[in-house]
Amino acid sequence: MSLSNLPNDDIDEFAVEQDHDEREEEISERAKRLHSAVRQAGGNGKVAARANMKLGTLSRYLAGRDMKASAMIALADACEVSLDWLAKGVEPTPALETIPLRTAAAVTQKNEDDDALPVKFFEVEPSAGVGVYPSEWVDSQDFLVSKKFIRQVLGVWSSKIFFVRVQGDSMTPTIRSGETILVDYAPQDIVDGLFMLSLHGRLIVKRLSIKDMHNISVISDNPRYNTFDVPMNKMCWASADPDAELRVVGKVVGRFEMGF
């Protein structure tokens, strides 16, 4: 019998059962990912302690109990995995894995050589109203970064890049407050990914995702913050459109522990 031939009550019951089955499968798959993350992070005891969670609570989540958003955030942080991956199985972007640049000797203020590229570092997010061009911002330091590191490790060939320290928790756990990101501000196609944006003159870091043919979704990785949509005809790269509501400053191509 096709669905069109079922009575309305039966169709509603069928839809409820289908939704329930999909929900159960989603929770089961999340528990499997949690098992893997906990094992890699050192076991139940260590993860529970890092997440400030009772061991019994963690055990119930591992057994397939649905997780609250706050618990999911704490466990992703404790296991050092992406919240997107733990919640939905979305793999993190490799370039955004934290890299201790100072330890890797990829950044220096001295010993200039032909393989080094000068890159500006902004200690704090530039003030609102300063514009979308990093060349116009003040209070920066210049660092020399290995071109080999930028190209071979990050896969970035642009020389229009800058470092900036991120403030706020809206992108936790992908980017935590106080961490440093590397931004490529050479104009390029706006596709799904992490971007530094100017929204009505305020600089923010968000994830962009194409919602449909006419709209872009602006997403915070921290589920406590709401997603909102912007019409594609109301956004642009830098100052290309004087009437734009959302301007793209650049694409986030790396996340780092600077060590200074």
From TrEMBL:
Gene3D superfamilies hit by this protein: lambda repressor-like DNA-binding domains (1.10.260.40), Umud Fragment, subunit A (2.10.109.10)
Residue ranges, annotated region (Disordered): 1-26
Protein name per Swiss-Prot or TrEMBL: Phage repressor
Span of domain HTH cro/C1-type: 47-86
The organism of origin for this protein: Gluconobacter thailandicus NBRC 3257
Keywords: DNA-binding, Transcription, Transcription regulation
Lineage: Bacteria, Pseudomonadati, Pseudomonadota, Alphaproteobacteria, Acetobacterales
Cited InterPro entries: Cro/C1-type_HTH, Lambda_DNA-bd_dom_sf, LexA-like, LexA/Signal_pep-like_sf, Peptidase_S24_S26A/B/C
Keyword Transcription: yes
